[in-house]
Amino acid sequence: MVTAAGVEACLPIRSDMDLMWVRQHVRQAAARLGFGLVDQTKLVTAASELARNTLVHGGGGRMEAAHVVSGRVNGLRLAFADDGPGIPDLDRALTDGYTSGDGLGMGLGGARRLVHEFAIDSAPGAGTTVTVTSWAVRPPRPREEV
């Protein structure tokens, strides 16, 4: 069972400077929750892509970060929300290589592959919310010498 330990932050996404604050917050929160360096990097990369999409395609919005717990494992849930034009074709938008702008078309699909859980809610004219969750995977216990 996943329980929310509380919202850590709600950060605005209105400028390139805000993108930097989002990345910094996500890295610090992940480190504090016990994420290893590789998992921190994956989550920060996904957050950076999603925050940029929020700014560029959604006209700006916000990121909410929440500490979540499943059993003894800590996680970080990030929700990126905007009130922009929405995504008319989600399947197409999640396809690698698709882009509605000047990018490489790896944003949503790439972000989805970098996290453990990915959900998107969008409709034309109704904005978009992308929610991702990553878990701090515990390393295996060392083998005992016999």
Q: Can you tell me about this structure?
A:
This protein is of the alpha+beta class. The protein is built from 4 helices and 5 strands, in the order E-H-H-E-E-H-H-E-E. It has helices at 16-32, 37-56, 90-93, 107-114, and strands at 2-13, 61-70, 73-82, 117-122, 128-135. It is globular. The relative contact order is 0.20.
Give the secondary structure arrangement, pairings included:
Blueprint: E1 2-13, H1 16-32, H2 37-56, E2 61-70, E3 73-82, H3 90-93, H4 107-114, E4 117-122, E5 128-135
Antiparallel strand pairs: 1-2, 2-3, 3-5, 4-5
Helix pairs in contact: 1-2, 2-4
Which terms summarize this structure?
single chain, 146 residues, alpha+beta, five-stranded antiparallel β-sheet, 5 strands
For the record, give the distance between the C-alpha atoms at the N and C termini, rounded to a whole number.
36 Å
Radius of gyration, in angstroms, nearest whole number: 16 Å
**Backbone shape:** globular
**Uncertain ranges:** none
Which strand order spans the largest sheet, edge to edge or round the barrel?
A: 1-2-3-5-4
Mean pLDDT: 87
Element pattern in H and E: EHHEEHHEE
How many individual helices? 4
* Classification by helices and strands: alpha+beta
Binned, the helix content reads 25-40%
Major sheet attributes: 5 strands, antiparallel
Q: Strand portion, in percent?
A: 25-35%
Number of β-strand runs: 5
Give the structure's gist in a few sentences.
It is built from four helices and five strands.
